[in-house]
Design the sequence.
């Protein structure tokens, strides 16, 4: 009989960071399933809090309104008593308060990808106001230059996702957690199966 080892789970929340198209939402959903945790997609939580889509929030209130809602939603979601898998939005580390709350409560995993990979994944950029009507590859290259240092500083570990399927990235994250000693098998025992879902 073949025994499939139980995946390990980090103590505390598991937060995925990375640029648009890095796979945070799709990977987070499967990772949560594997870890038997609730999945929270921060962009989705923001739209629920605001009662408006991300596009409408940016259009009506500008990026600063969106960032205020993002910061509020982050605090609300990380206040959950059950350890969650959180798929953040690409710009979440822009504010110091967000970096601090993530550092306090979460194991942070950076899903890394080359801009050429990201642009393939985001397609026409619909639903992502920072990309709409712009040269997505150019924007993503600039964002990588701006944000990569913050991802690197905030992350407990980084996983390269170029050329990998969602399932392969999930396996790579679980392996990396184990390799760096952040996984804890007992953490699975207290987790829940109550998935809140996110976007694809
Ligand atoms: C943003 C990324 C988006 C969303 C918003 C801003 C960013 O999330 O939060 O459009 O600043 O990179 P995804 O990274 O899930 O696309």
Sequence:
């Amino acid at each position: 009989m073949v025994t499939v080892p139980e995946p390990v789970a980090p103590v505390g929340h598991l937060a995925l960071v990375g640029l648009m198209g890095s796979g945070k939402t799709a990977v987070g959903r499967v990772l949560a399933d594997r870890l038997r945790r609730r999945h929270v997609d921060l962009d989705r939580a923001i739209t629920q809090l605001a009662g408006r889509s991300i596009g409408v929030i940016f259009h009506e209130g500008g990026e600063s309104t969106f960032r205020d809602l993002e910061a509020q939603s982050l605090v609300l979601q990380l206040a959950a008593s059950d350890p969650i898998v959180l798929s953040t939005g690409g710009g979440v580390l822009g504010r110091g308060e967000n970096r601090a709350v993530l550092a306090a409560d979460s194991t942070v995993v950076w899903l890394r990808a080359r801009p050429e990979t990201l642009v393939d994944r985001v397609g026409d950029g619909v639903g992502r106001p920072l990309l709409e009507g712009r040269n997505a590859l150019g924007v993503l290259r600039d964002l990588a230059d701006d944000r990569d240092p913050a991802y690197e500083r905030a992350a407990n570990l980084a996983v390269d996702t170029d050329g990998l399927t969602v399932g392969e990235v999930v396996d790579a994250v679980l392996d990396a957690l184990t390799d760096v000693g952040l996984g804890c098998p007992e953490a699975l025992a207290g987790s829940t199966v109550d998935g809140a879902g996110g976007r694809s």
